[in-house]
Design brief:
Number of helices: 8
Strand order of the largest sheet: 3-2-4-1-5
Number of domains: 2
Structural class: alpha/beta
CATH superfamily of the largest domain: Tetrapyrrole methylase, C-terminal domain
CATH topology of the largest domain: Methyltransferase, Cobalt-precorrin-4 Transmethylase, Domain 2
Shape: elongated
Number of strands: 10
Order of helices and strands: EHEHEHEHEHEHEHEEHE
Strand content: 15-25%
Length: 205
């Protein structure tokens, strides 16, 4: 019985891809992942199954094909942090899949500012409400956020200012690991006036 592999591919550049992850990707027959991730491994000439528009088809495809071919599901960052692993772990037995970790944008963001993250609250706004964010920011010394197009950094800053947290600071890490990388450490008041952030995460403290 073949196992399916859920592989964290880091930040999208080869420098942050773990050797064991690359070994398993090279050994796979079929790669499943977001189009931008699959593009990074197109030179390997593997069968591709893009996630976009196919989320509901991935599990049936893996169940039908995993004993015929070696399948690797590629996820950005670390495989255990807000990834497709949650779905896989609900649909498969533990001996039917193997998890390969990766370097997450959270790890690199805290590395960039030279701080530890064991005391940080980790939250994601991907497809979620901004809901209790203010409560979490009040309650925790550091909050790490995966942002969302509907909730860019400047909108989050404005929301927190409305909730009376105008003294807080934020670090916005944009395009981490890429040549266009930018790290902005600023007050929420200044951040609320900024715009045009791309592919970014935030640390609020």
């Amino acid at each position: 019985m073949n196992k399916a592999y859920i592989i964290g591919v880091g930040l999208g550049t080869k420098e942050y891809l773990l050797p064991i992850a690359l070994t398993q990707i090279k050994a796979a027959d079929c790669l499943i992942g977001a189009k931008r991730i699959l593009a990074e491994f197109r030179n390997l000439r593997k069968e591709e199954f893009p996630m976009e528009g196919n989320l509901g088809k991935i599990i049936p495809f893996v169940k039908a094909q995993k004993d015929k071919k070696k399948i690797a599901i590629l996820v950005s960052g670390d495989s255990g942090l807000y990834s497709f692993l949650d779905t896989v772990s609900r649909k498969f037995k533990k001996d039917e899949y193997e998890v390969i970790p990766g370097i997450s944008s959270m790890q690199l963001a805290f590395a960039r500012i030279g701080e530890s993250w064991q005391d940080a609250k980790i939250l994601s706004l991907h497809g979620r409400s901004i809901g209790n964010l203010a409560t979490e920011v009040k309650r925790n010394p550091k909050v790490f956020l995966f942002t969302d197009p509907d909730f860019p950094p400047q909108k989050i800053a404005a929301y927190l200012i409305e909730k009376g947290m105008d003294k807080k600071r934020a670090v916005v890490c944009e395009q981490l690991g890429y040549p266009e990388e930018r790290v902005v450490d600023t007050s929420l008041k200044q951040l609320a006036k900024m715009k045009d952030f791309k592919l970014c995460v935030m640390i609020i403290k």
